TrEMBL record:
One of its GO terms (molecular function) is metal ion binding. It comes from the Bacteria. The lineage of its organism: Bacteria, Pseudomonadati, Thermodesulfobacteriota, Desulfobacteria, Desulfobacterales. Pfam families: Fer4_8. This is 4Fe-4S dicluster domain-containing protein. Keywords: Iron, Iron-sulfur, Metal-binding.
Length: 315
């Protein structure tokens, strides 16, 4: 992926040199393998810090709401869709942004790689669809496709939907995936089994709010869970409070979530948080033929009203 990084650096340098933007948001190498960090470059002399590989999973749209300056931002498919959502929701203007589009073949799941290797990882490299992992006295080569984040494995919008410049030719979109196999499995359960499924799913939650903080949709100045007048939900790890937090947060993402996987990537205990938002994503697709972040010209279904909207649920 070094050619991607070189192109990103070249574009960033030009944008900063000619004053098109005040800052470029991209990625730099993290202090640990498989965890690249957001990087905010304001000096053209420092663009060499920018990198690109399959560990650039953080959604950089998370850093755009309420910014005032002109920004260049590196965006893969899901990031670009969240940028569209931010523009539609008036969190930033299109004129403030120079979007550097990156066709994406998926981000790797560091937990899957660590589990597959079972040893301390000192360095990681990738080429030709293979991930090479090295450590003290060993080297292992893994198939990237088998190590993808779950959301990337079923992604059908790998290319940016909005951009000012794209660094490579579009990649082939996936058409032979079932995006909602896990949701359908839960829907098929009887009520008791479904309740137990979610009870077990949330059992390890420590209420750290990493999922909320990583989500580009959670930009409210004060989250409902932090409100004290009135207090909507307790902040303990009580099962009712935990359940309420996750369900309410998911509903706040309804019709807006792009399934970028930021929530699951951030969770320190590995909870498959996307199971909540994917159900609502599926409902929006089936009820309104809606996919979030695909157009600047169409409002999300849950902030508009049309007489032909489904209303069979009204008794």
């Amino acid at each position: 992926m070094s050619e991607y990084a070189e192109k990103i650096r070249g574009i960033a340098k030009k944008l900063l040199d000619d004053g098109t933007v005040d800052m470029v948001i991209g990625f730099r190498k993290g202090t640990m393998p498989l965890i690249n960090e957001p990087c905010f470059v304001k000096d053209a002399a420092k663009v060499d810090a920018l990198v690109w590989d399959s560990s650039c999973g953080v959604n950089l749209a998370n850093y755009l709401p309420k910014r005032k300056e002109k920004i260049g931002v590196v965006a893969k498919g899901c990031d670009s869709r969240n940028i569209v959502t931010h523009i539609v929701e008036n969190q930033i203007t299109r004129e403030q942004l120079y979007i550097i589009g990156v066709p994406c073949t998926g981000m790797v799941d560091r937990r899957k790689i660590r589990l597959a290797v079972g040893k301390e990882i000192l360095s990681v490299s990738e080429a030709d669809g293979k991930i090479t992992v090295t450590g003290d006295g060993y080297e292992e080569v893994l198939d990237k496709q088998e190590m993808l984040q779950d959301n990337c494995a079923i992604c059908i919008h790998r290319n940016p939907v909005i951009s000012d410049e794209v660094i490579a030719d579009p990649v082939e979109e996936q058409t032979d995936v079932d995006r909602y196999a896990d949701v359908k499995a839960v829907e098929a359960m009887d009520p008791e089994a479904r309740w137990n499924h979610f009870e077990q799913l949330l059992d390890g939650c420590i209420r750290c709010y990493a999922c909320r903080n990583a989500c580009p949709l959670c930009y409210c100045p004060t989250c409902f869970v932090d409100e004290s007048q009135p207090q909507w939900v307790g902040k303990s790890v009580d099962k009712t409070d935990t359940r309420t937090f996750h369900f309410l947060r998911a509903y706040h993402c309804a019709g807006r979530c792009t399934d970028c996987g930021a929530c699951e990537r951030a969770c320190p205990v590995g909870i498959p948080v996307r199971q909540f938002t994917k159900k609502l994503e599926k409902d929006c697709k089936e009820l309104f033929d809606w996919e979030a972040g695909m157009s600047l010209d169409v409002r999300p279904p849950l902030d508009t009203y049309r007489p032909e909207d489904p209303d069979e649920f009204i008794k």
